[in-house]
């Protein structure tokens, strides 16, 4: 009896120690992740300047957002970037397949390192570099065209409302995401090698192998990356903030930037309004993610 | 608890004031004690010479920046004069409030430098926490380095009056900082740096003084195939709209209301109510005129300006690819160091004349007459009288006519003391007799200022993607939305003017009961009167917010 009690108390102590180890992580997650999120939801029903002004406005913020033409312009811009980002997932997929097929392990390693190096360059540096390249007066692109005697092809780049969105999309060139690449590679490396032997016996061409074996078998990894691309495109605004600040006019304003500008970008700072935009973005991203999940399930 | 501690400190200040009045009749609060009064400098070299002193002074000006070298050279000059004094200039950047965060902790642990550069509001904060010396008494004594003035205080531009804002901000009603750079009288309008070589090439012999002359000069430059102006879609746009609008039809908004409301403290309130009530309309002719001015000027800005920021615009000017760039005095040394291959100068923002628009007042806004900041002295210095003497002597040296001449020239700032010759470098940054529009009469382009996306909306108008009516309607739509919220806030009992009145009344009651200095009481009474006037004003137009 006493031996059983000793075992029980030992188990309890072990459980307590386990909880104690997890407690800091739970606490910090609650304080730094969940509290701001719930606080944001709460404040989306208030006019709030982050300090002394906190006036309940009910659904007022949401009504105002939905009736603001700038918000809808930003949604249209977001959809453009969303579609581009989805299409531009392809180069990473192709790069991972090509990389996987490199038989020489040293070369494969070298290319893998090469493609992962951009991961260690801060995104802001890349954005500022491109901003410099695009400058119409002293930027690299127009200077290059001038040196080739092609002045008539010089552009305003970011200054041209018709071209600016495409310029932003091009900033990701060659659109190979390091993390996504590693995920795809890991997926391919985990496949049973007999599949490749069977394909070789069947005489499958490289393209057939990609279309019939590699891409279908990477569907799981693709969907994972897709969700991250969707969430990033719906809520992200770093690129637009740094490179164009949403301009010229509202040409590159996206909902995330719209939210940021309402919180920090003007004398009429209203964190409540910005929180309401944030909540809407969260709902949109959630909806798209749920649809994707449903799509994943139905396929599997 | 807080109120009790405030009462106690104010009471102590009152006691302190009473005691020191015997020694210095003009003093308003903590003054030099008998011993420190004996420290009163009468000539340079009055500081102890038989002892080594190490003085720590902190500012946010790095050694490579414009004001930093000016200060460092002045400190070197002082140390040459007093070899037994070693000045250490500590640099702490302002970014992310790092400067005040550091001071907060240093003061608590009594590790703060002997003197530190502070804007008015921070100086008031630290004075209210009893970390700074009150300086009235020291300033009422003669300066060792300005023998031609009766007192040190008299040497400052605007004398004691120029300290009235700074004094009313702290509980002692005392002077708690010594200004050294950027005195009253700076022009409120940012001038233009220009490429003299391009001007010469374009045959522009006279610097444009009016808006029409500026456009004429720009056309000549454009005819050479050079971009006249390096513009950006952010700061430049904001400045241009403001500075052109300021000059049009003074009193345009203020005159819509009863005379008693036309005070500078209420100019924002007036414009908000004017917009909310429809007295200031979406097609306001004066704001429309300022948009027209911008549109005409924008044909001289480099292509693609809307998508670049001020740093990129600065590069365009620096590379000689545009002739004009708008910037403040803080970048003068940067240009001096970095411009290669051409000479530059600065021209004041031009006056808009009736030749350009019938709304032109042909005047510029008046300059401020208050000291906006300076150096606070650590209260712990009271424990070391000799060191205090040295620190005071350093600041008397820094504010001497001769040193201000050198420093303001090198740092390119407006001197803080009288009788300093202003060099050509600073001239364009100083207000002149054209600066006549009183600040309560200033037309501050209300729709643009109250909108949320003013700059983006103007970009669309100036790049031909929207017409003027659509531009003004969009500005108006956003402005109406915003001002209505502001009016609701102003009338809110918890966060608006009514609560401000309650706070001020409580403060005044406490000040009266603790025999606080008269100027502090007067400042609180004035604020209370303004708050009451505001409430009365907003109550009349409460329906406008609905």
Automatic annotation (TrEMBL), chain A:
<dbReference type="InterPro" id="IPR000515">
    <property type="entry name" value="MetI-like"/>
</dbReference>
<feature type="transmembrane region" description="Helical">
    <location>
        <begin position="271"/>
        <end position="291"/>
    </location>
</feature>
<keyword id="KW-1003">Cell membrane</keyword>
<keyword id="KW-0813">Transport</keyword>
<feature type="transmembrane region" description="Helical">
    <location>
        <begin position="16"/>
        <end position="35"/>
    </location>
</feature>
<keyword id="KW-0812">Transmembrane</keyword>
<dbReference type="InterPro" id="IPR035906">
    <property type="entry name" value="MetI-like_sf"/>
</dbReference>
<keyword id="KW-0472">Membrane</keyword>
<comment type="similarity">
    <text>Belongs to the binding-protein-dependent transport system permease family.</text>
</comment>
<feature type="transmembrane region" description="Helical">
    <location>
        <begin position="163"/>
        <end position="186"/>
    </location>
</feature>
<feature type="domain" description="ABC transmembrane type-1">
    <location>
        <begin position="74"/>
        <end position="292"/>
    </location>
</feature>
<dbReference type="GO" id="GO:0055085">
    <property type="term" value="P:transmembrane transport"/>
</dbReference>
<dbReference type="Pfam" id="PF00528">
    <property type="entry name" value="BPD_transp_1"/>
</dbReference>
<dbReference type="InterPro" id="IPR051393">
    <property type="entry name" value="ABC_transporter_permease"/>
</dbReference>
<feature type="transmembrane region" description="Helical">
    <location>
        <begin position="224"/>
        <end position="243"/>
    </location>
</feature>
<protein>
    <submittedName>
        <fullName>Sugar ABC transporter permease</fullName>
    </submittedName>
</protein>
<keyword id="KW-1133">Transmembrane helix</keyword>
<dbReference type="GO" id="GO:0005886">
    <property type="term" value="C:plasma membrane"/>
</dbReference>
<feature type="transmembrane region" description="Helical">
    <location>
        <begin position="109"/>
        <end position="133"/>
    </location>
</feature>
<feature type="transmembrane region" description="Helical">
    <location>
        <begin position="78"/>
        <end position="102"/>
    </location>
</feature>
């Amino acid at each position: 009896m006493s031996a059983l009690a000793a075992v029980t108390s030992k188990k309890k102590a072990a459980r307590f120690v386990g909880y104690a180890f997890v407690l800091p992580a739970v606490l910090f997650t609650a304080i730094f992740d969940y509290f701001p999120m719930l606080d944001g939801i709460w404040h989306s029903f208030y006019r709030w300047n982050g300090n002394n002004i906190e006036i309940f406005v009910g659904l007022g913020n949401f009504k105002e957002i939905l009736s603001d033409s700038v918000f809808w312009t930003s949604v249209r811009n977001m959809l453009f970037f969303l579609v581009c980002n989805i299409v531009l997932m392809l180069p990473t997929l192709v790069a991972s397949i090509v990389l996987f097929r490199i038989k020489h392990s040293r070369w494969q390693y070298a290319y893998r390192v090469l493609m992962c190096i951009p991961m260690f360059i801060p995104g802001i540096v890349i954005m500022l570099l491109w901003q410099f390249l695009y400058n119409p007066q002293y930027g690299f692109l127009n200077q290059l065209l001038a040196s080739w005697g092609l002045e008539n092809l010089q552009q305003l780049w970011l200054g041209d409302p018709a071209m600016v969105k495409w310029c932003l999309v091009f900033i990701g060139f060659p659109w190979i995401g390091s993390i996504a690449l590693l995920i795809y590679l890991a997926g391919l490396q985990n496949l049973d090698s007999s599949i490749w032997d069977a394909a070789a016996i069947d005489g499958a061409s490289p393209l057939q192998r990609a279309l019939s074996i590699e891409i279908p078998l990477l569907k799981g990894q693709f969907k994972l990356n897709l969700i991250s691309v969707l969430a990033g495109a719906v809520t992200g605004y770093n690129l637009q903030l740094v490179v164009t600040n949403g301009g010229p006019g509202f040409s590159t304003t996206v909902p995330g930037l719209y939210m940021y500008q309402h919180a920090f970008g003007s004398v009429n700072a209203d964190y409540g309004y910005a929180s309401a935009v944030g909540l809407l973005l969260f709902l949109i991203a959630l909806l798209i993610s749920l649809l994707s999940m449903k799509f994943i399930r139905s396929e599997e | 608890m807080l109120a009790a501690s405030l009462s106690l400190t104010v009471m102590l200040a009152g006691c302190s004031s009473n005691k020191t009045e015997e020694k210095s009749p003009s003093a308003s609060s903590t003054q030099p004690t008998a011993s420190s009064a004996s420290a009163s400098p009468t000539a340079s070299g009055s500081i102890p010479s038989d002892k080594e002193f190490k003085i720590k002074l902190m500012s946010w000006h790095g050694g490579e920046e414009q004001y930093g070298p000016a200060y460092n050279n002045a400190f070197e000059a002082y140390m040459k004069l007093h070899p037994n004094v070693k000045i250490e200039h500590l640099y702490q950047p302002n970014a992310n409030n790092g400067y005040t965060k550091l001071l907060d902790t240093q003061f608590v642990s009594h590790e703060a430098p002997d003197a530190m550069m502070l804007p008015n509001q921070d100086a008031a904060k630290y004075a209210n926490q009893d970390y700074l010396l009150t300086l009235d008494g020291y300033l009422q004594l003669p300066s060792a380095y300005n023998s031609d003035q009766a007192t040190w205080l008299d040497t400052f531009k605007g004398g004691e009056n120029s300290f009235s804002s700074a004094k009313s901000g702290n509980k002692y009603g005392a002077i708690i900082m010594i200004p050294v750079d950027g005195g009253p009288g700076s022009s409120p309008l940012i001038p233009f740096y220009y490429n003299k070589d391009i001007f010469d090439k374009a045959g522009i012999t006279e610097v444009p003084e009016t808006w029409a002359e500026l456009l004429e000069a720009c056309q000549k430059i454009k005819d050479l195939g050079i971009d006249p102006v390096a513009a950006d879609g952010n700061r430049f746009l904001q400045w241009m709209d403001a500075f052109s609008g300021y000059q049009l039809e003074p009193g345009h908004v203020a005159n819509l209301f009863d005379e008693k409301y036309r005070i500078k403290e209420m100019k924002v309130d007036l414009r908000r109510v004017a917009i909310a009530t429809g007295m200031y309309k979406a097609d306001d002719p004066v704001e429309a005129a300022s948009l027209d001015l911008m549109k005409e000027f924008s044909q001289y800005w480099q292509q693609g300006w809307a998508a670049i920021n001020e740093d990129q615009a600065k590069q365009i000017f620096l590379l000689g690819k545009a002739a004009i760039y708008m910037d403040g005095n803080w970048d003068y040394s940067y240009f001096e160091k970095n411009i290669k291959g051409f000479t530059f100068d600065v021209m004041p923002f031009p006056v808009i004349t009736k030749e350009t628009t019938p709304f032109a007042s042909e005047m510029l806004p008046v300059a401020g007459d208050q000291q906006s900041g300076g150096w606070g002295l650590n209260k712990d210095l009271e424990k070391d009288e000799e060191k205090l003497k040295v620190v005071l002597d350093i600041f008397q040296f820094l504010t001497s006519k001769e040193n201000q001449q050198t420093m303001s020239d090198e740092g390119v700032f407006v001197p803080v003391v009288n009788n300093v010759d202003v060099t050509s470098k600073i001239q364009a940054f100083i207000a002149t007799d054209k600066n006549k529009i009183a600040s309560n009469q200033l037309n501050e382009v209300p729709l643009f200022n109250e909108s949320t996306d003013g700059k983006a909306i103007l970009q669309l108008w100036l790049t031909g993607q929207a017409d003027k009516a659509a531009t003004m309607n969009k500005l108006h739509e956003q402005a109406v939305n915003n001002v209505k919220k502001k009016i609701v806030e102003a009338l809110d009992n918890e966060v608006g003017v009514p609560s401000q009145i309650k706070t001020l009344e409580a403060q005044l009651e406490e000040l009266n009961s603790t025999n606080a200095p008269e100027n502090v009481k007067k400042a609180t009474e004035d604020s209370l009167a303004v708050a009451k006037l505001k409430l009365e004003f907003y109550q009349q137009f409460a329906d406008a917010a609905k």
